[in-house]
Amino acid sequence: WDETHFGKMGSYYINRTFFFDVHPPLGKMLIGLAGYLSGYDGTFPFQKPGDRYEHHNYMGMRGFCAFLGSCLVPFAYLTVLELSKSLPAALLTAFILIFDTGCITLSQYILLDPILMFFLMGAVLSMVKCNTCADRPFSTSWWFWLSLTGVNLAGAMGVKFVGLFVVLLVGLNTIYDLWDLLGNLSLSLVVFGKHLLARVLCLIVLPLALYTAIFAVHFAVLNKSGPGDGFFSSAFQSQLIGNNLHNVSVPE
């Protein structure tokens, strides 16, 4: 059922048809992009679950989701390896995920779940990697992992609002780090201020900027009238090509 739902939204992006959905747009945008790059023309109706795709090229969208789902295995492996420093523990984690039928099932269809889990686990891995660089703050690797954490937070929030939970996790980890730094009497307040500013830039400003940019792209791409028009104001509808109010002169 969900493949029918999100596959249709991928088609909307390819056809630039405006629609409304409860989830933020990033996941559907990526599905639409994967379909567009793999030769899908956005003409499959997605009317009901189980309809045959026949000549429509759907494999790019499914393949994209499957690829992101398969990335969960190395992400989990690297995260556990960093946390435990135990190769057997990391390998066990990877094998558990490899043979998890739920994970395999979720990853083989056109769904938001593998995209969401990719960003969720990517954020956790980036956070853990950044923590391991704590002994060399402001180094290239430290900035890289801190910035990548912010990018993954924006990705998780941009796919589904349940991404807020990983934002909470990273936030608590950051508060713990800053509290620890504040209690370090060998650090000056200027250095602590630099630590605070770096985290504000990478974990608040950067994710918010990317999250806003996702919506900017969403509204720029979907410029034709569609099933989501009625959720928005008359002024907004007048900007959509094909809408009854398009370019109509209406008093302010």
From TrEMBL:
Gene Ontology terms: cellular component: endomembrane system; membrane
Chief site of localization: membrane
Pathway(s) per entry: Protein modification; protein glycosylation
Keyword Transferase in annotation: yes
Topology versus the membrane: Multi-pass membrane protein
Record GO biological process: protein O-linked glycosylation
Molecular-function annotations in GO: mannosyltransferase activity
Keyword Membrane: yes
Domain ArnT-like N-terminal, residue spans: 1-223
Family to which the UniProt record says this protein belongs: Belongs to the glycosyltransferase 39 family.
Protein name, as recorded: Protein O-mannosyl-transferase 2
Taxonomic classification: Eukaryota, Metazoa, Chordata, Craniata, Vertebrata
